[in-house]
Amino acid sequence: MTNLNNNPGTPPRGEEFKPREPYTHRLKKLLEEYPDGTQVLREILQNSDDAKSKVQTFILDHNTYQSERLLEPHLNKYKHFNLNIDKYQGPALLAINETTFENNDFESLLSLADSKKQDQFDKIGVMGVGFNSIYHITDSPSFITGDKYVVLDPHEWYYNGGVKFNFIEENLIQEYPDQFAPFTPFGISCNERFDGTIFRYPLRDSTFSNISKKIYKTDEILEMFRKFYENESIHCLLFLKHIECISFYELKKGASKPELLYKIQLDNAIQVRNKRSSIVENIVPLMDELRLGKLNDNTQLKSSYVASFRHQKGEDTDGEINRWLILNYLDDLLETEAHFQKRFNKSIGDHKFIPNVGLAVPLNSLNVIGRLFCFLPLPIDMPFIVSVHGYFAVSNNRRSLWSAAGNEDLAFDGLANLKIQWNKYLFEKVLPKAWIGFLLELTKVDDTDIQLNDIYRFWPRAINMSDSINTFCEDLLKNVVENLNIEDRVFNGPSLNAIGYCWLSLSDGYLDEKSLDSNLLKIIGNIGFPVISVSYDIIRILQRSRHNDNLKRLSPAVIRDYLDLKFNRTRWEDAAVSRQDVLQLFKYILSDRDFNELEGFKMIPLANGTLGTLTLYSDSYVYIDEITNYRNEHTNNLINQLNSDKLIDKTIDFELYEILYNSAKARWGGCNLNIKILDEIGVRDLILIIRDMNENEELSTNEIENVIEILKRIAKIQNDDKIEGNNLQRLDELLIPSTNNKLVELQDIYYDDMGDRLDDNEKSKYEITHNFVTQNIAEGLGIQTLKGKIFGNKDSDWETYEQHESLTTRIKNILDDYSIDSLFKEFLQNADDAGATEFSVFVDERTFQHNSKNLFSDEMVCWQGPAIWIYNNAEFTDDDFRSLLKLGTRGKSRDEKKIGRFGIGFNCAFHVTDLPSFVSGKYIAFLDPHAKFLPEQGFPPRRPKGARIDFMEKNFKSFYDQCHPYKMLNCNFSREFKGTLFRLPLRTSTTGDQSDISNKFYEIGEILQLFNDVQDMNEMLFLRNIESCSLFRMDDTNTKLIWRTEINNFDSCRLSRQNVVDEVQIYQLDIKRTNMRNKKISEIWLLCSGRHKFISEQDLRVFSKENRLMPRGGIASLLARSSEKSLDELRNESIINPPKLRGEMYSYLSLSINTNLGVHLNGNFFLPSARNGILQSKTDFLQGDCINAKWNRYILYDVLPYLHVKLLNHVVDRHENREANFLSYISNNLWPITRNSTISLYEDYYLNVIKTLGTGNHRVFWTEFNGGQFISLKEAKIFEEVEEAIIANILVSSGVPTVKLDRDKIEQLNKIVESRDPPNFPYMPVSGESVCEELQMVISSIPSFNNISNDGNMQYNRDSLFELLSFILQDKNSFGTLTDLPLVPLNNGSVGKFGEVYYVGKQKHLDLFPNIGPSKFVSTKLPENLQKIFVDDNFCACTNIKKFDASGILDLLRSVIQPVRELKWVPDGNSLPNKSWLKKIWAILYKDMKKVDFNKLSKFPLIPVVQPSDMLIRPDKNNPIIYIPESGHTLYPLYPALMKLNVHITNMVVPEKAHENLKKCIVECTPVNIINSLEKIRSSLSLTMKQLFEISEILPEEYILFRTLIREGMDAFVAQQQNQKNFMDIPRSLPIWEVNLCDDKFFDATSGILLPHGFPFYSFRENSNVYKPTKKDRASLTKLGAACMSGLELLEDLIQQIITLFPTPSKHPKYITFLREILSDKWRNDKIVQYLIKYPMFPNKALTEFVKINTLYDMNVPIFRRIFKDDKFLPSELQDNAVCLEALKSMGLICKMIPTEIPETNGNQREVLLNTLLKKLTEQQDNEYHDVIFNVGMKKIGANRYVLSAASEHFEREFHGLSERSEIEINVPDDIQPISIEILLRWLYGQPFEVAKTIATNEIPSSAYISFIMNVLKVTHIYKVEEFKNIVETSIKKGQYVNIQEVYLILKLSRECNAQGLINFYENHIKSNKGIFREQLSQSENATNEEMLQMINSILEGQE
After folding, report:
1. Fold assignment, 792-1002
2. pTM score, whole prediction
3. Judging by beta carbons within 10 Å of its beta carbon (0-12, 13-18, 19+), is residue 1580 exposed, middle or buried?
4. In this structure, how many other beta carbons lie within 10 angstroms of the beta carbon of residue 1720?
5. 1921-1946 residue pLDDT tens
């Protein structure tokens, strides 16, 4: 802003008030983003609110003011444009507020899009562009504020951008009153300070504007006021901070006082003012404290209030008041700041991110749609009724929120992404908290129209969400729920007060999740229950929220509990609510079928109308009749004596009746509820009937039969009830007839099922049932059996086994842990624990089901098939039996010598069977978990789950079929059995389907395969007793051995195996294996077992004691295996080299877990119930936090490594004692890790073994030094045995003890060192430095590395030296220890000492300088790795090795080339320099260019140029050359043009890493560099760019190449502009752009105009300055700032051409093509359509003139073609184009006449005629035909009087009384045509009119049709045939005629015929199509018929 000082006597100049950037162009761009309309008013309102004004007034001033005494402009540009000085004295919009401008407000106006409100946290605006929206309506706003008067002039027509005056100091009102006259009508005196601000916006009155072409009229401003009032009024005040009143006035032309149009004001402003602005007043100080780091407390603020808004229209109304609940909320600033600092490292203050939101909703009416606000409403609807406000990041034009588009990839910390994330933060973090507060405030509001159903409309339940807001609102409801406090009372409950609802929280209300019936909910609420009714979407989110676990859910159980409370019973019992309501509640609490909880509820609907009480413990029942008898009086015949208080009421709701019936039928789910099916009369009553008989008297046969019948019914009831389990207690008093014909108590009588297996003498000891009592009755009544009595369990040991009610489920779960694979091992384990030495398994294929007559029970027949027999030679003890029955009680866990500890391993048997049994000693035992195969026993009788029988005492062998399978295994039940024999009968598919344990069944082959695999598992290795193991196969003929494994040396190892001692034991097992082919395998195993004597950690000691677990383990290593040699031969072998062993884990038996170690590991692990589960989870086993896992880690990582080392030491001792050669065995088999390991789980194991080896100084490492020996880890220098073997050998040759190990072993040693556990581990990895140190001590012994050794053998040659150097030099620490070592390989083949000077390079380097001979050079044949080290800077510095680099090159250059400016050369010659030599020199220089002295380099001519090609020149950064490679370049096609323009080029490549000065000498061929070169050439020649191109004769195709150059280089140009001022002016100046209509002219980027891409172009002028760009060129022109013209502006220009040039359409045929493109879907939009409608832009078909579209007709309408000529139709090109035609129809093309509704008529003359004729015929038989003659002119037409009189009342009256014999003649009027009489008669005779009139339509021409049809109408009128008349009228109406002459004839004759319906129809038809009729009235051929003109005009004008 410039201060223009005024000189005395000169007009006032004021201060220059001008923005800092080009104004109009920028404003135009801004307006494209900023919409006009009411948005302009909103922006003004925003600025006033920011200024803290309480009032905002808008005034439309229609007046134009005097212009005699106006301020004189500073500029005279306006004169050049023929503008007047009074241009802005006309109508204007004024805006007034009550605050005065501050300095920063002035600054904001000077800075476009750079608001001074950015850092003012209490201001709305942040863009700085809102004020500029006013330029939609004006070109020069002005305003008065305080003592300042400001005029803005963006065009700089009058002022240099604008001017600011102090109008008081300069007393401007006196000198220039007209200037201030527009302000004075509004109370502005202009001679004193104005406390406020008044803006004046003169309305734009012409299109001559560079800002906008839109002209604004006063009507449009009034419309703007109206729309604001109707659409925005109250909304605009909701979230503003200060504005309390908005008024709109109109100052009409000549008026002195403005009139009020509209007013919106806050009625209770005083009451809510402080709350309204409280948060914004706190924001500034809080943000300051945050910025200064002084903010410590939570800053959450909330302000809520009810605002009363009045909106008033005009002065004379009081207006309407609307009440709104409004809440404003500020979230914690510290929390928000921390969030953005953590995520983006950004401060919220830097971006004016304030966590402030608001919510508002009207209280009077909820018929609203919520809006989105950023203080003022945005054009975004919310998907709910609540309006939402926030400090959102909005787009520049305030039309939308910042949000990501699709998968748009935005920079994470870029401003765009920050804005998006901020909006998300407000919606996801802040708004939910505010919403909770809002809902809580809502509960406090009184006097509202809110209804119960509306409560949840205030929640953010999104419905019909728009895409624009969807991203932000989709999780809003979820986040609100997450922020909800469980105590927040925001849910509606039952009606407890006048408003119809109460408020509940989640803590005190119950959710209705099932959407129950509203009537039921009302009942529940009426009894005082706090039920929460809420929509399903809220329920779903609550269920997924953090509140889910705290939700109280409405359920039948909850209601039952509520009803059952003593103090609640008064709410519903004893008629507190209606019986119907009680039954509703009853039906609901029944719905969860939890019938056990119904005890005591008085809810049973009895037939006597009362309610009975439900009970579970009563013998008195209520009965319900069959469902089929619902609501009828049918009575069950079984009981006819029941009273109504024993029957369910049949009149209750059917659904409840059905529930009761079905529940009773289903026995109430096992509950004894006292409602039963009527047909299921209680057993109790039946028992009483029997007991009425005398118990002690002998019964007759008849009496016994009656008792039997009753017993049958009871048994049937019992059998039916078995589905739910027998309730035998109710039979306690039942009496049963005995064999003595007396009644005996049920519990004292037995059913005989022993038959002849028991003699009569024995039977007499028992009461036996009568013979009439069948087995079915006995079973149904639960009568005890004799078999059960005799063989039943009397042993208490069965109690534990029996107590498992779901034993099958327990076993099934056990089987999930124990696989079928465990079967063999579990029985083997049990045998070993029992002390057995022999273990055998027999797979029995035999079947005995044909021998099933004499079984222990008939049900056992299904288990008489194939079986598995398992034998061991130890006998079952009583303790063993008890352990077997006690599932999961760890029967053996307290015996340290036992392997098993869980007591459930035996249950593996149930994998294959449901009925295992075993014989041992004198007992046979059966286990029947299903309790369905053993005989029943006891009272009440039941099948046991197992039985143990003393077969010697009980004569069990009498069940000979049961005992038969045992005989083949030496068990005959006549003597005790030595050992134990298990029988596991195999489950079949049939028994599997019936099993509750498993449905799996196994074939014999599967069992054999399973057990056959066991042989290879070495299961006996760690057992203590078993010495042989066998598998056999049995069939009906013999028993075959499958395999046997046995310990051969059991005498020498038995004691070691059985002893459980603390000392370490090492012993050998010799094992022999035999298979069915008698093939034998011999194995020798070495085992080490023992324990830790002391457990160091207290918790492990406690665990060991509690679980009786000792820290014991074992290691097993395979010493030898052979299928060829015997055990004796294996024992005598001298070299131990067994096959590789795949190590496994054992806990005495294998765990089926592979370790990949070379040994088997056995540990006393803490096992889960299933042995194979120990390592199912690595985490649980070793890394869990539980003590179990810790114990297992202790065993694996402490106990077992200790034993492993003991075994290693033992083997080393045996090797040194020369028992055998164990070297390979130690390193490959016994070493803790092998090449094939490792599962990472065992890594710590073998690491611990190695740690133990190292820390204990154990000699287990073999070295070849000094003839070979074992040494300790501390002594060994360890190398990799393959890759580093040569280094190890060299060191051994030099006297260093080295050990060679494989890589895996070395890696484990390194891991231990890296872990520093233990800290003093004695291993140190070898390094290059350590090797040098060793060699320094033996320099004299280092080999010479000659190719031939002294003895003539190949030994350490040059390759050996390279290997040694490679190893040493990989360690950079070795560089300093190399001095004096003779290890430098020289180029002449010798070896030099490190420390002397040598040069390292390649042969090609020596060849560059032939004059320098081969001095001291390191061998050029170094391997690549050594080559890299020898040129390493650090290496060279330590060893004096010198590199052949750029520095050396510069020193050597003078031997080839002299330092001159230019040099002639022969590039392809042989002498130096040549092209090859130069290329190599530059290659070396580039490698180290940054260290080169550029001044020194620049003295040598080393750069070749393209022209001339034989020249070398010095590098010169002040005169760079453009580089284009010979091989091609994207810009290479420009080469010829560049040559024409004198641009210099080289093909020498300068790499990116080259010296900066060198890069300045040769620049890339880039668009930027080419443009700069062109500018230098242009400048040097003093030409314009256009002149340069013209003299260079650039070809058209080269212009295309230049456009491509600009396009591809645009991004680079923009970037270059930042560093090179005015750079963009150069590409703008290139004359390369094509324009329309001028093929030979090219414009620069500033001289033309750009249309939208693809927009069609047309001009009536011959020349054009409109660019004709491609799509790509368009983007370039846009970026270069080319002026743009919209499609609408092109149309504006075209209409100006039409108006001014008067073109003839016929001379511009292509214009129609242009129109066709404009009308396509691609370009047609609302604005273009409105413009095309508005102006005459369409040629007619005759091509005679341009007209408006609404004056043309659619030629496809036939009637129009008959009426109009070509000048009223479209050109064919538009008419025939479907898209154009549809578009033009929508724009006003007349395409149809408006149809008039035709009333329906109804006539069925044929039926009337036929019926009447039949009547006439029966009454008169002598009819004559044609007794009526119609005389029509010269023609006579005959008819029958009966037909006529029957069909027409008129003829019947005419013929009445006439003689029937006389002929009747009727003379027809002259103007009636004969054809009309014929049609009348045809219709009267029954022919339809449409058929009858065809006789005329075939003869009468179409032009005469109207006359004909009207003649027919006249006939119907004359002869009063009304029905026919209606039909004819309808036919005429259907014609919808629009020819004016035809319509005139219709109306004229209709009046004659009194056809009023037809008259009304066509008058409406004329009015509906008035355009068509008025057009015809204007035609000359119709002008002569004055009567017609008068008639039609009167109709159109509504005068007739």
Report:
1. Heat Shock Protein 90 (3.30.565)
2. 0.45
3. exposed
4. 14
5. 888 888 988 888 888 787 888 888 88
